[in-house]
Please model this.
Amino acid sequence: MTIPLFDTYPRLRGALPYIALGALPTPVERWTALEQEIGIGTLHVKCDNVSGLLYGGNKVRKLEFLLGRTVQEGVKTVLTFGAAGSNHALATALYARGLGVNCVSMLVPQANAPSVQRNLLFAHRQGAELHLYPGRKRVALATLMQFQRLKRQQGRFPQVIPPGGSSPTGCLGFVNAAFELRQQVEAGLLPEPGLIYVASGTMGTCIGLLLGLRACGLQSKVMATRVTSPPYTSAEKGRKLYQGTQTTLREADPTFPASSFPAEQFELRDEFLGEGYGLPTPGGAEAIAMAQQAGMKLEGTYTGKALAGLIADARAGKLREKNVLFWNTYNSRDFSAEIRHVDYHALPSGFHPYFETGAQ
Ligand SMILES: *Cc1c(COP(=O)(O)O)cnc(C)c1O
Model:
């Protein structure tokens, strides 16, 4: 299997767990209408929305390494975490099932939205075992109990995949994404980006990219728009994840370059979160509408807020001379046919209110 990261560092192949799941490389498209409308040197979109044939978005890249490990270790069940409508929990359930691996999802409440309902139905349809707990403390306790139950039933503990898939192993997917981007720059598909705008939920995407950019020699600055509160996104977590991912790489191949956290190449943007995770903002809603005019489907939890940051910077005149890349992390594969006949009553009763009260 050849991927850009392994092409450059062949000793990583075989030393790191990996299984191809995605439809990579993802395309790069120029977005001239918005570029002209709000005054940007050049604006391109990295289309990770089509990163997988079944289901796209940014989680697929992480799962290539996370589930690569699952397969390598012969584990039959993964246990993961997220909010009720988590794209990560859905993607994990879906790609795990394709490998014959069960997925247990430990979920906590979030603001209702149509995408929450759709994701729950699809994950259920894909055979995921879904649990809803009132908060993080209860999840911690319940996780211990699930561990014991699975050990009893299957003779072995499940593999834990952290929220958002943002462990050092998951980050490798975005280290590889940076190498993929360099190939596309070299092929003339886009100029080297001065700035890359991306949402930060659990930081695996922005930190993996940052480390990959450093390692592959691209100078692009990562503009990470916070869409969650600490501990999911924080400067300290970013540094830890950077170091942890680098350690994973250098243990697998000591020639992989060592670098300290490049603070000058990374900016964490706090102004676009609004009232909190999953809660819409006016700037996000405007960004979604502008994207829709270009036929691009964004949402209010992640990508709308990330694009709102880009638009605000452009309007402030900061991007006139810049080559800008917007990283579209939101799945655009339509799975409505898959869930049309799924009855929500088949889900555990704790989830039913999502289907019985209005979504925002
Ligand atoms: C999970 C997710 C993100 C955030 O990625 P992190 O690696 O958790 O920071 C961004 N956009 C979408 C659509 C997501 O589902």
The beta strands are 28-30, 42-47, 77-83, 102-108, 129-132, 159-161, 195-200, 221-226, 266-269, 323-328. The mean pLDDT is 97. Residues 57-58, 87-88, 164, 166, 199-206, 302-303, 329-330 surround pyridoxal-5'-phosphate (CB under 6 Å). The chain is about 40% helix and 15% strand.
